[in-house]
Amino acid sequence: MDFISDTLASVGLNEFVITLMFVNAILAMSIYLTLYGGMFSLANAGFMAIGSYVSVILTQNHGWPFFPAILAGMVAAGLIAIPIGLPVLRLRDIYLAIATIGFVEITRIMILNFDKIIAEVYTRLNIDTEPPKITNGPLGIIGIPVETKLEYLVGTVIILSYFMIRMHRSRFGRALAAIRQDENVAASQGINVVYYKNVAFILGAMIAGLGGGFSGHLSRIIQPGSYGFGTAVDILAYSVLGGITSWYGPILGGLALTALPEVLRPLKEYTGLINGVVLLIFIAYLPGGLGDPALWRSVRKTFNRLVNFINKGKTADAGA
Amino acid sequence: MLVLKHVSRQFGGLMALQNVAMHIPTGQIVGLIGPNGAGKTTLINCMTGLDHPTAGEIKFDETPIQKKPAHRITALGMARTYQNIRLFGEMTVLENLVVAQHGLGRATLVDSLILTPRHRRENEHLRENGFQLLKRFHLEQNADVLAGNLPYGDQRRLEMARALATNPKLILLDEPTAGMNPVETAELGEQILRMKAEGKTLMVVEHDMSLIAQVCDEIYVLNFGQIIAHGTHEEIKNNSVVVEAYLGQEEGE
Amino acid sequence: MRSSNQLLKLRSVAITALVMLGIALVAYELPGILDKKVLNPEQHLTTVIWVGSVYSLFALGYALVFSILGVLNLSHSAVFMWGGYIGVMSVIRYNVPIYYTLPLAMLGGGIIGVLVDLIAFAPLRRRNAPRISQLISSLGASAVLVSLAQLEFGTSPERFPRTTLKELPYEATVARPYSIDWLGAEFRITPLQVSIVFIAFALMLLLQYLVARTKTGKAMRVVAFNQKVAGLLSISVGGIFRLTFFIAGALAGAAGVLYAFAYPSLTPFTGDEMALKGLTVIVLGGLGSIRGAVLGGLLVAAFEVYATAIGYSWLKDALPFAALFLILLFRPQGLLGEATVKRA
């Protein structure tokens, strides 16, 4: 084990980074359900923020133990997803994307200004006591002890993977796939489109909230700025890179795109550039992503052909 | 079984359907014909819940359905096929039929997660039903082929099979013979008559008069969103208003 | 009886007038309602006008690409940022006279726009990729452009040197605003702000003229309506696309330079702040509508100015997004768009 961890560390993958890789894998999986159902929702960055802040506030200000706080963050995200999903999921394609971007930004701004809002409420209601400082504005909450461990994350990813695999073969999964391919036809086959879309959205939100909870207890500080449009795009990039044609695609995408800038640490300034270029290349030439079975089939075919070519060369030499 | 009264559908300034009255008696096959653009697909959409009339009433077995969402109307026993085939191209033929039986299933996500006997039993049951349907339409050897890869004729038959999968009382067929030769058309006619013999009620929207003649008990004619004639095949054939509607269409082309 | 076209035009004019009246009403009445003191509501109106015109100019590029290609080009804000840098850096590094910065930035922006099309959009069009892929691709292009700016210019804020700003036709410092007395109220606007409004509106009118009256503009409208038909009429659809990206890029570049004139801190991330604002502007105004972009720009500027004025500065960021959200829910076609948006 030590040998492996030393080798990985030498390329820049220390324990912190590997843990982060798995957090992002979880976030990528959170968007998988909605993408599988054909919904182009970027909302999960907002749910991640909710999960993160709720769980951190519970552990730091109210002394909750770690796991219940994480679960509470998950539930909070799910609860908020309900009133958001119902109106927003009626929109199609680009309008849904824009609306969810709007949600993410509103969430970020609300968290950023939460204390000011509370203060204002106190003033309006003429409450005399000093209003509490909960989210602490742009500086965020600092000094969070690191409680997230790699084992928890790997375990979570395994459980979620099982969930995704079973989902594919379930009535629920079939309904989602039908909705993705043709919503109207799905409806006329007896599928309650609104219900399934919302369930997928809420489940995705909860997974994102879970990821947020873990992430909040990993980096020692949380700030509203980490949960805006940029993060939403990052999560999308994980899924695009990994592809949504298989359940393991988002996991691969999350792991790879988090590891890449660390491995290329000497090129640290170029990470934005590389992320962008990777996105461009993948969306144009590998729309199925890393996790696309078709990709691996053709890789194997090329590999086999290469092997055959080399073998022919060998026999030719032998014959000559 | 299905009664329409004063059904209208307005899109901004355009009246796609105007005061449509129709009655599809149980166990009969009703035909709906009319020139292109007459509003036939709009009418089917309103009946099946994909669209809603702006005025009027539609009753399915005495239950008003003009405001109900599509999945509820299907649950009440209605099914339809599409003019341009809309199969789930990324799923296999058998999967298309299993999905079509969605309303008949009860397994929830939780069942699938913990692999309850209900999940297993239901999957088996639905697949078996699907397979029987495939056999009926001579598609069983294609069970695991992606629906998008089937030849056109097979896709049409799968579309039909799918409509039957929900075990409906009433089936609406939207131009089922598009792209078929006379032999295939006649075969389709046989399938439709067989469904009638099984107790189903059907409405067929068609341009192909031979199919209409073969299966329909009565015919409605739709033009510019209004019913301009109603009767048996003989009566319609000789109706001057109908002839003019079609001739007018020809001249315009 | 008026034709439906005229009715639509009447309606859009009516909505515009209503919105403007609403802004003026808010300007004068809101402080009273909320029991807060606001000095100089007229001042705020002038701010709304000149800030709004920059936003509108910026949003026009979005609106143009969306109406002709049907895709949202999220790298538009990066081109805007580059326009600003081209302007500022040509003065700082190469001592270009300040008059030339606007045309330079527009040219540069246009070229970058065409490059983005060639790299991020055209390959996907050729493969008939879904629109969402093109959106994601534009995000990638945006990230690349921002990184390149970071590498080339660093992240510390840049600005036009004060000395060169003085060379503008009107003196550009804030020190000596014009004072206009109208209806008993005093409006103060600096010469720089006047130039900005003037240039922005000139460009918008130019665009309007191009689209409505020239042969090329007609071709663009045909392509927007139906690409197949355009091909049949032997319009070079690809050529129109590239022209559209050029124009949009040029507009973004112009907006960038104007913004840099007005705000003395340009960083590679300035575009990102504008990106979401621009999105709000066009969704509010109506996603394909050019007039909508103008109205939306004024509205968003109004939100920001008045939220700050009544003391809830944190609201200035939230309000546009809240409006965005609500509009999408209740009137997705925006204020001036047409009701062709289908709900799923």
Question: In a few lines, what is going on in this structure?
Answer:
The complex is a heterotrimer of chains A (320), B (253) and C (344). With 320 residues, chain A is mostly helical. Chain A contains 14 helices and no strands.
If you had to describe this structure to a student in words, what would you say it looks like?
The complex is a heterotrimer of chains A (320), B (253) and C (344). With 320 residues, chain A is mainly alpha-helical. Chain A has helices spanning 2-10, 15-36, 44-61, 66-88, 93-112, 114-124, 150-168, 171-181, 183-188, 193-216, 229-242, 249-263, 271-285, 293-319. The longest helix of chain A has 27 residues, at 293-319. Chain A is globular, with a radius of gyration of 22 Å. Chain B has 253 residues and is of the alpha/beta class. Chain B is 42% helix and 23% strand. Chain B is built from 10 helices and 10 strands. Chain B has helices spanning 40-48, 70-76, 93-100, 109-114, 117-136, 152-165, 182-197, 209-215, 233-237, 240-252; strands at 2-11, 14-24, 29-33, 55-60, 63-64, 78-80, 170-174, 201-205, 218-223, 226-231. A 6-stranded mixed sheet of chain B has the order 6-7-8-3-9-10, with helices on both faces. Chain B has a 4-stranded antiparallel sheet with strand order 2-1-4-5, with helices on one face. The longest helix of chain B is centred in the middle third of the chain and has 20 residues, at 117-136. Chain B is globular. With 344 residues, chain C is mainly alpha-helical. Chain C is 73% helix and 3% strand. Chain C contains 13 helices and 2 strands. Chain C has a two-stranded antiparallel sheet. In chain C, a hairpin with a 2-residue loop joins strand 1 and strand 2. In chain C, helix 11 runs parallel beside helix 13 (315-330). The two termini of chain C are 35 Å apart. The chains are: A mainly alpha (320), B alpha/beta (253), C mainly alpha (344). The interface between A and B is medium-sized, with 27 and 37 residues.
